[in-house]
Specification:
Layout (H helix, E strand, L loop, with lengths): L5 E6 L5 H12 L16 E2 L3 H8 L9 H16 L6 E5 L5 E2 L2 E2 L6 E8 L2 H12 L3 H8 L5 E3 L5 E3 L3 H9 L6 E5 H6 L1 H11 L6 H10 L2 H11 L20 H4 L2 H18 L4 H11 L2
Parallel strand pairs: 1-3, 1-6, 2-3, 6-9
Antiparallel strand pairs: 4-5, 7-8
Helix pairs in contact: 1-9, 2-3, 4-5, 12-13
């Protein structure tokens, strides 16, 4: 059985994955049938879904004894996820592409393609800090850590590694059909960016349907939905998952020293994907060393 059915919705945390999943649901599901933000799993799956790990491990509840057990069970869980639908379907991940011993975090045998989201590290840092309930310095240290990872209470892990290493692992993966989207472009020209996405998926572009999906998943709409219904993916202690949703909020959140640490740590990746930011970032980082 060919299990290459997963189209990964991949990103480092806090790069726009929830917005992307919501848009895809609104565009591809019949009118009036698209799920709200608390039922996105009806359309997309995630690689941390506990029910698939329980089936793969043959026990309920499933709590991995350690990282090695999680990694071993993940292989079967991903195969179950891939074959849970009869054709290509979307699966969210925050894992980097990597091989650990004999195991692939993103196995080629279940992978069809990937949509990969990137967001400048300065905005990621301030948003990720809120998500983790960490201070900014600790969050930046996490982003710079090659061994960085998150895990659930069931010891289901998200192996992220360094922010720039995460991007490199996906954008330079051999043999992978991958479409890269900048969060900044999703904000600046939403329609153009999502048209390009649909082109990559070889999906017919219907103008009215596209614009309705964009309106239904605007940041303000998602924020209102969270305020009304809550959001099950919001971490405990976080006041609101959808807080600002804009580009450049790092300017009020990060100190010059913190900007400098990110610039120094991630220089080549920033220069490649965000050249328009360099002059401002270098001026701020320069003040840090003055």
């Amino acid at each position: 059985m060919n299990a290459q059915r997963i189209i990964w919705l991949a990103s480092f945390p806090k790069s726009g994955n929830t917005w992307l999943r919501s848009f895809l649901a609104q565009y591809f599901m019949p009118p009036g049938k698209a799920p709200d933000i608390n039922a996105l799993r009806e359309f997309t799956t995630g690689d941390v879904r506990i029910d698939f790990f329980e089936r793969a491990a043959g026990r309920k509840p499933f709590v991995a004894a350690d990282f090695d057990e999680w990694l071993k069970v993940r292989q079967k869980a991903l195969h179950l996820i891939a074959t849970s639908k009869p054709s290509h379907h979307f699966v969210k991940t925050h894992c980097r592409i990597d091989r650990i011993g004999p195991y692939f975090l993103i196995p080629p045998e279940v992978t069809a393609a990937a949509l990969y989201l990137i967001r400048n590290p300065f905005d990621v840092a301030q948003s990720y800090s809120r998500h983790l309930s960490f201070g900014l310095d600790d969050t930046i240290a996490r982003m710079l850590d090659p061994a960085g990872m998150n895990h659930t209470t069931a010891n289901i892990f998200e192996v992220t590694g360094r922010w720039d290493g995460h991007i490199q692992s996906w954008t330079e993966a051999q043999g992978l059909a991958v479409h890269v989207m900048r969060y900044e472009d999703m904000i600046a020209d939403t329609e153009k960016t999502f048209r390009a996405l649909l082109g990559f998926l070889r999906a017919p572009v219907q103008d009215g349907k596209l614009r309705r999906a964009i309106r239904a998943t605007s940041f303000d709409t998602l924020k209102r939905e969270e305020a009304t219904k809550g959001f099950i993916e919001r971490p405990k202690g976080m006041e609101a998952f959808f807080a600002k949703g804009k580009v450049g909020s790092w300017r009020e959140a990060l100190s010059p020293d913190q900007v400098g640490r990110l610039r120094e740590g991630f220089g080549p990746t920033i220069e490649r994907y965000w050249p328009e930011m360099l002059a401002e970032v270098d001026a701020i980082a320069g003040r840090a060393g003055a």
